[in-house]
Hints:
This protein is of the alpha/beta class. It has helices at residues 3-16, 76-84, 104-118, 120-123, 137-148, 165-170, 175-185, 220-231, 255-271; strands at 30-38, 43-50, 58-62, 88-92, 130-135, 155-159, 206-211, 236-241. An eight-stranded mixed beta sheet has the order 1-2-4-3-5-6-7-8, sandwiched between helices. Helix 3 (104-118) packs across helix 5.
Amino acid sequence: MTVNARTLIASLLILCATSSLGERAAAQTVRVDAAIKFGSSGQLLDVCIPAGATKRVAMLFVHGGGFRSGSRADMLPFCRLYAEGGIVAATIDYRLSPTHVFPAAFVDVREALTWLKGQAPHYGFDARKVVIVGYSAGANLALMAALTGEPSVASAIAVAAPTDLKAMIEGPTFEQAKRDVRAYLGTQLPEVASPMTYVSQGDPPVFLFHGQNDTFVPVSHSVLLADRLRQNNVPVLLRVFPGAGHEIMLPGPNFKQLLDEMTRYVIAVDGM
Length: 272
């Protein structure tokens, strides 16, 4: 994501902020604890903290980029917005391919979750109410963390998630996406890095967003995962945006609706 895109997202987030997080006039001042080192590989994260009282829920954002690009800065505007509404929110870096192959990025996400949950007393949220949010490749990683269960999360929100990496390699998608997945897997079988593999009864609730016309990660990835979750009695919501592509978490016609629905969902988790 370019700097200009991040700037535009930050502006749109301000315009799209919903009453679920409170009126803009009542928005809290935000402190950012930046470039905190976590985990065994020394990756960095930023935490956005409300200046006043915090809600019980916290959020961890995982950026996209085909497992090979992107950074925690991509999700920082989202973290700032939710912190203005009283929610502690963190955004993380993770090791990128092809230098680092699976499970490096997955390990980093799990260690970020462990770190954030451990900071609950310091930042004032409930460690049992962490919601992990990912976009594209980051959504794959968020789902992997949620469905493997260690450490546990309250819920996962996955936007345009590749849920079956074998289908990514063999199915109807761009060649660049296939190359990205192969580079990320290294010598591992695709099933090992696919959220679809790990669905079981007792998994945390999942909210899936997808564009109906996504040609990078076909909508079938979310549809089939939702079906499998339901078969295992796991609570799941699926929102498919008609006519939309892969860019639904970027500025565009579906951006406000996605943000509104995601916000209402997170507030609901806070009230559980």
